[in-house]
Amino acid sequence: MTELFIKMPYLLEIKSGKKTVEARANYSNLRKIQEGQEVVFVSGSLRVNVIVERISLYKSVDEMLENEEIDTLIPGANFEEALTIYNSIYPPDKVKKNNGMRVFSIKLM
N or C: which end of the chain has fewer CB within 10 A? Predict the structure, then answer.
């Protein structure tokens, strides 16, 4: 089973059901994840199991935010706030180097 590490505030949003979409740079280890696969998000001792329902690929953070519901990615954030947060985690050069952003629509198990 694939384990993905995530910052605690985001894991708590997943656990609560508010965050239903996870996005990351398109790293090679993420390319192995398939729709229908179980994934475990981990932060410290907290583990949350989900099923990947949909996978999308975008060329940039901007394109991703224009096509996904921002509140499902970062609950409570607007476009500019989400853009700032994602660019601080995944600067444009990192996104380009990894051929974009990979987005997982997830459902709690």
Answer: N
What beta strand segments (E) does 1-109 contain? 2-5, 21-25, 38-43, 46-58, 101-108
CA distance 96 to 64: 13
What is the pLDDT at residue 1? Answer: 85
Longest Cα–Cα distance in the chain:
35
Indicate yes or no: pTM above 0.85: yes
Q: H/E element holding 6?
A: none
Q: Which residues of the chain have pLDDT under 70?
A: none
Q: Name the strand (E) or helix (H) holding 62.
A: helix 61-67
Tokens of 41: 């998000």
Give, in order, the Cα–Cα distances in Å from 42 to each of 2, 7, 55, 56, 108.
10, 8, 20, 22, 14
Give the C-alpha separation, 71 to 65, whole Å. 10
